[in-house]
Amino acid sequence: MGERKASRDGDRKVGRRALLIGGTVAAAGSAALARDELARLWWRAPGVEKPRKEGEVDYAGARWVAASDANWRRADRPDDYGIDMVVVHVTQGSFGSAVKAFQDPGHKAAAHYIVGQDGRVAQMIRELDVAYHAGNRDYNERSVGIEHAGFVDRPQDFTDEMYEASARLTARICARYDIPVDREHIIGHVEVPGTDHTDPGRHWDWEKYLRLIRRARTTPA
Fold first, then answer.
1. Tens digits of residue pLDDT in 153-178
2. Between the CA of residue 220 and those of 119, 168, 169, what are the distances in Å?
3. Which of 11, 133, 201, 211 would give a disulfide with 145, using CB separation of 3.0 to 4.6 Å?
4. What values do phi and psi take at 143, rounded to 5?
5. DSSP secondary structure of 7-70
6. What pTM does this model have?
Protein backbone atom coordinates (compact mmCIF):
# COMPACT_ATOMS: atom_id res chain seq x y z
CA MET A 1 0.00 0.00 0.00
CA GLY A 2 2.87 2.37 0.72
CA GLU A 3 2.74 5.77 2.35
CA ARG A 4 -0.60 6.61 0.74
CA LYS A 5 -3.64 4.44 0.16
CA ALA A 6 -3.41 2.70 -3.21
CA SER A 7 -5.73 4.06 -5.86
CA ARG A 8 -8.31 1.93 -7.63
CA ASP A 9 -7.71 -0.04 -10.80
CA GLY A 10 -8.82 3.01 -12.77
CA ASP A 11 -11.83 3.30 -15.01
CA ARG A 12 -13.95 0.23 -15.54
CA LYS A 13 -13.68 0.21 -19.31
CA VAL A 14 -15.00 -2.82 -21.12
CA GLY A 15 -12.08 -5.19 -21.74
CA ARG A 16 -10.80 -6.45 -25.06
CA ARG A 17 -12.70 -9.72 -24.83
CA ALA A 18 -15.91 -7.91 -23.93
CA LEU A 19 -15.56 -5.82 -27.06
CA LEU A 20 -15.12 -8.95 -29.17
CA ILE A 21 -18.21 -10.51 -27.62
CA GLY A 22 -20.09 -7.27 -28.15
CA GLY A 23 -19.09 -7.22 -31.79
CA THR A 24 -20.33 -10.77 -32.29
CA VAL A 25 -23.64 -9.93 -30.67
CA ALA A 26 -24.05 -6.87 -32.87
CA ALA A 27 -23.16 -8.85 -35.99
CA ALA A 28 -25.83 -11.38 -35.16
CA GLY A 29 -28.40 -8.62 -35.04
CA SER A 30 -29.09 -8.93 -31.32
CA ALA A 31 -30.13 -5.92 -29.30
CA ALA A 32 -27.25 -3.79 -28.10
CA LEU A 33 -26.07 -4.66 -24.62
CA ALA A 34 -25.39 -1.97 -22.09
CA ARG A 35 -21.78 -1.28 -21.16
CA ASP A 36 -22.18 -2.63 -17.64
CA GLU A 37 -23.86 -5.79 -18.95
CA LEU A 38 -20.86 -6.52 -21.16
CA ALA A 39 -18.51 -5.95 -18.24
CA ARG A 40 -20.39 -8.61 -16.28
CA LEU A 41 -20.94 -11.07 -19.11
CA TRP A 42 -17.62 -11.26 -20.95
CA TRP A 43 -16.20 -13.94 -18.68
CA ARG A 44 -19.35 -16.07 -18.95
CA ALA A 45 -18.79 -16.81 -22.65
CA PRO A 46 -17.96 -20.47 -23.45
CA GLY A 47 -14.26 -21.27 -23.10
CA VAL A 48 -13.39 -18.09 -21.24
CA GLU A 49 -13.46 -18.98 -17.58
CA LYS A 50 -10.90 -21.30 -16.01
CA PRO A 51 -12.13 -23.80 -13.41
CA ARG A 52 -12.31 -22.26 -9.94
CA LYS A 53 -12.79 -23.75 -6.50
CA GLU A 54 -13.77 -21.74 -3.45
CA GLY A 55 -10.79 -21.15 -1.19
CA GLU A 56 -8.26 -22.48 -3.70
CA VAL A 57 -4.79 -20.92 -3.61
CA ASP A 58 -2.22 -20.54 -6.38
CA TYR A 59 0.73 -20.92 -4.01
CA ALA A 60 0.85 -23.95 -1.72
CA GLY A 61 2.45 -21.98 1.10
CA ALA A 62 -0.42 -19.50 1.32
CA ARG A 63 -3.61 -19.43 3.36
CA TRP A 64 -6.73 -18.18 1.58
CA VAL A 65 -8.35 -15.05 3.03
CA ALA A 66 -10.72 -13.48 0.51
CA ALA A 67 -10.54 -9.78 -0.32
CA SER A 68 -13.71 -7.83 -0.96
CA ASP A 69 -14.81 -8.28 -4.56
CA ALA A 70 -14.96 -4.48 -4.80
CA ASN A 71 -11.15 -4.44 -4.70
CA TRP A 72 -10.41 -6.62 -7.73
CA ARG A 73 -11.77 -7.48 -11.17
CA ARG A 74 -12.55 -10.96 -12.44
CA ALA A 75 -10.35 -12.05 -15.34
CA ASP A 76 -8.85 -15.11 -17.01
CA ARG A 77 -5.16 -14.35 -16.80
CA PRO A 78 -2.81 -15.07 -18.43
CA ASP A 79 -5.08 -15.81 -21.39
CA ASP A 80 -6.71 -12.39 -21.53
CA TYR A 81 -3.87 -10.40 -19.95
CA GLY A 82 -0.32 -11.74 -19.97
CA ILE A 83 1.51 -11.65 -16.63
CA ASP A 84 5.09 -10.43 -16.87
CA MET A 85 5.72 -8.57 -13.63
CA VAL A 86 5.68 -8.76 -9.82
CA VAL A 87 5.10 -5.55 -7.86
CA VAL A 88 6.51 -5.32 -4.33
CA HIS A 89 4.55 -3.28 -1.77
CA VAL A 90 4.82 -2.41 1.92
CA THR A 91 1.59 -2.13 3.89
CA GLN A 92 2.44 0.81 6.18
CA GLY A 93 0.76 -1.19 8.91
CA SER A 94 0.43 -4.64 10.40
CA PHE A 95 -0.48 -7.89 8.66
CA GLY A 96 -3.90 -7.80 10.30
CA SER A 97 -4.60 -4.21 9.34
CA ALA A 98 -3.78 -4.99 5.70
CA VAL A 99 -6.15 -7.96 5.68
CA LYS A 100 -8.87 -5.79 7.20
CA ALA A 101 -8.30 -3.03 4.63
CA PHE A 102 -8.44 -5.46 1.70
CA GLN A 103 -11.69 -6.92 2.99
CA ASP A 104 -13.22 -3.45 3.16
CA PRO A 105 -15.18 -2.65 -0.04
CA GLY A 106 -14.62 1.03 0.58
CA HIS A 107 -10.84 0.66 0.45
CA LYS A 108 -10.92 0.23 -3.35
CA ALA A 109 -7.54 -1.54 -3.41
CA ALA A 110 -5.99 -4.91 -2.59
CA ALA A 111 -2.99 -7.04 -3.53
CA HIS A 112 -2.96 -10.71 -4.43
CA TYR A 113 -0.76 -11.65 -1.46
CA ILE A 114 0.36 -10.38 1.95
CA VAL A 115 3.59 -11.62 3.55
CA GLY A 116 4.09 -11.22 7.29
CA GLN A 117 7.23 -10.55 9.29
CA ASP A 118 7.01 -14.13 10.58
CA GLY A 119 6.93 -15.52 7.03
CA ARG A 120 3.22 -16.33 6.85
CA VAL A 121 1.54 -15.75 3.51
CA ALA A 122 -2.10 -14.93 2.84
CA GLN A 123 -3.58 -15.04 -0.64
CA MET A 124 -6.54 -12.68 -0.96
CA ILE A 125 -7.10 -12.61 -4.74
CA ARG A 126 -6.53 -15.32 -7.35
CA GLU A 127 -3.70 -14.73 -9.79
CA LEU A 128 -6.30 -15.26 -12.50
CA ASP A 129 -7.88 -11.97 -11.51
CA VAL A 130 -6.83 -8.32 -11.69
CA ALA A 131 -6.10 -6.83 -8.27
CA TYR A 132 -6.33 -3.08 -7.76
CA HIS A 133 -2.88 -2.72 -6.23
CA ALA A 134 -0.64 -0.64 -8.47
CA GLY A 135 -2.70 2.47 -9.18
CA ASN A 136 -2.14 1.94 -12.91
CA ARG A 137 -4.60 -0.09 -15.01
CA ASP A 138 -2.01 -1.56 -17.38
CA TYR A 139 0.31 -2.59 -14.54
CA ASN A 140 -2.60 -4.10 -12.60
CA GLU A 141 -3.55 -6.23 -15.58
CA ARG A 142 -0.03 -7.53 -16.20
CA SER A 143 1.28 -8.05 -12.65
CA VAL A 144 0.93 -9.93 -9.39
CA GLY A 145 1.00 -7.68 -6.32
CA ILE A 146 2.69 -8.72 -3.05
CA GLU A 147 2.30 -6.68 0.13
CA HIS A 148 4.79 -6.93 3.00
CA ALA A 149 3.66 -6.10 6.53
CA GLY A 150 5.59 -3.20 8.01
CA PHE A 151 6.67 0.38 7.49
CA VAL A 152 9.04 1.74 4.85
CA ASP A 153 11.10 3.69 7.40
CA ARG A 154 11.66 0.71 9.74
CA PRO A 155 14.31 -1.63 8.31
CA GLN A 156 13.79 -4.00 11.26
CA ASP A 157 10.35 -4.82 9.83
CA PHE A 158 11.96 -6.55 6.85
CA THR A 159 12.92 -9.77 8.59
CA ASP A 160 14.81 -12.73 7.18
CA GLU A 161 11.63 -14.78 7.49
CA MET A 162 9.76 -12.22 5.38
CA TYR A 163 12.42 -12.04 2.68
CA GLU A 164 12.70 -15.82 2.44
CA ALA A 165 8.94 -16.42 2.35
CA SER A 166 8.38 -13.67 -0.21
CA ALA A 167 11.28 -14.93 -2.33
CA ARG A 168 9.82 -18.45 -2.43
CA LEU A 169 6.45 -17.01 -3.44
CA THR A 170 7.92 -14.77 -6.13
CA ALA A 171 10.08 -17.60 -7.46
CA ARG A 172 6.97 -19.73 -8.01
CA ILE A 173 5.15 -16.85 -9.69
CA CYS A 174 8.11 -16.20 -11.99
CA ALA A 175 8.37 -19.90 -12.87
CA ARG A 176 4.63 -20.14 -13.57
CA TYR A 177 4.58 -17.22 -16.02
CA ASP A 178 8.19 -17.33 -17.32
CA ILE A 179 8.99 -13.97 -15.72
CA PRO A 180 12.72 -13.10 -15.69
CA VAL A 181 14.20 -12.64 -12.24
CA ASP A 182 15.52 -9.12 -12.66
CA ARG A 183 14.71 -5.55 -11.69
CA GLU A 184 12.86 -4.86 -14.92
CA HIS A 185 10.23 -7.46 -14.06
CA ILE A 186 10.29 -7.45 -10.25
CA ILE A 187 9.71 -3.86 -9.26
CA GLY A 188 8.63 -1.69 -6.35
CA HIS A 189 5.34 0.17 -6.18
CA VAL A 190 7.33 3.40 -6.38
CA GLU A 191 8.41 2.41 -9.91
CA VAL A 192 4.89 2.13 -11.31
CA PRO A 193 4.22 5.07 -13.68
CA GLY A 194 1.81 7.64 -12.30
CA THR A 195 2.00 6.47 -8.69
CA ASP A 196 2.71 8.71 -5.70
CA HIS A 197 3.79 5.82 -3.46
CA THR A 198 7.30 5.30 -2.07
CA ASP A 199 7.22 1.62 -1.12
CA PRO A 200 9.08 -0.57 -0.60
CA GLY A 201 11.47 2.27 0.29
CA ARG A 202 15.22 2.61 0.63
CA HIS A 203 15.55 -0.06 3.32
CA TRP A 204 14.26 -2.85 1.09
CA ASP A 205 17.30 -4.96 0.15
CA TRP A 206 16.80 -5.67 -3.55
CA GLU A 207 20.14 -7.46 -3.96
CA LYS A 208 19.28 -9.87 -1.15
CA TYR A 209 15.74 -10.36 -2.40
CA LEU A 210 16.73 -11.22 -5.97
CA ARG A 211 19.46 -13.56 -4.71
CA LEU A 212 16.91 -15.42 -2.59
CA ILE A 213 14.46 -15.62 -5.50
CA ARG A 214 17.12 -17.09 -7.79
CA ARG A 215 18.06 -19.61 -5.14
CA ALA A 216 14.42 -20.56 -4.63
CA ARG A 217 14.01 -21.08 -8.38
CA THR A 218 16.50 -23.95 -8.16
CA THR A 219 14.86 -25.49 -5.07
CA PRO A 220 12.07 -28.06 -5.54
CA ALA A 221 8.66 -26.71 -4.55
1. 999 999 999 999 999 999 999 999 99
2. 18, 10, 13
3. 133
4. -130, 165
5. PPS------HHHHHHHHHHHHTTPPPPPHHHHHHHGGGSTTTSPP--TT--SSTT-EE-PPPGG
6. 0.80
